[in-house]
């Protein structure tokens, strides 16, 4: 466990260092070091004001989405659960679009608040419909419900943007997802949400571990299944909302990171240790994906969600095929 954490911390550190050096222009280590110490040349200002913030936002976004995905997968017992696939990102994006087009709310704080509201409403819709399906609503059908709601909200978002050209110009870049040129005040949302999430994960760890059993067995050992599930899903929605507020809708990170964490961790350690590993995996993946987004279409820059989809889509198909094989 300790070795895994040390390895991931080193990987995250190296990824962040690489993020400061690599891009359309590759900067020498001495230039980066001078920038971090207050250098005033053009290159040093670019590093300090552009690359440092996007690296921090990338790491925080990846960590938040990773823990969000882990919480969803754990309490629903569905390895395919993820904020993007279950419509939570789409709900946050739709709420932000409504706020801008209908109420002309465009401040960073308003965007953050709207993202939280939209994420919570989307979560309530998805899992509310899931509960109407009975016990099976916690497994396969919940994914179909989430994808359907995500598609509906995404369509409504596009319609609203097409009706308001000003909003389209304002939100088009944000809706594509990315870590560059984001309001720095949003960093505080992620910086506050992650420690709170880890504390909450520690307090809920024993209950979530018990949910590995069926609901009746968990209730039999004194676990409040409904309470734990509701608290975990609310926390997952809030983390996804913080990520959307910082970086816009980013998909597949919440799906991939928990599975990687499970494969490199000691499963006997319990949920909280898995949450720590998942958080670091998500941060590393996000920073590496951001570096790749700068390089693969240089001198342009690819949307971060497109880069993640290159890995996430095949991974999702692998998971779907694996579940089908188990079912057969």
Automatic annotation (TrEMBL):
Cellular component terms (Gene Ontology): plasma membrane
UniProt xrefs under CDD domains: TM_ABC_iron-siderophores_like
A Pfam family it matches: FecCD
Keywords: Cell membrane, Membrane, Transmembrane, Transmembrane helix, Transport
Gene Ontology MF terms: transmembrane transporter activity
PROSITE patterns recorded: PROKAR_LIPOPROTEIN
Membrane-crossing segments per the record: 84-103, 110-130, 142-163, 184-208, 228-258, 270-296, 302-320
Topology versus the membrane: Multi-pass membrane protein
GO biological process, alphabetically ordered: siderophore-iron import into cell
Entry protein name: Iron ABC transporter permease
Lineage: Bacteria, Pseudomonadati, Pseudomonadota, Alphaproteobacteria, Rhodobacterales
Organism superkingdom: Bacteria
Mitochondrion in keyword set: no
Similarity comment text for this entry: Belongs to the binding-protein-dependent transport system permease family. FecCD subfamily.
Subcellular location: Cell membrane
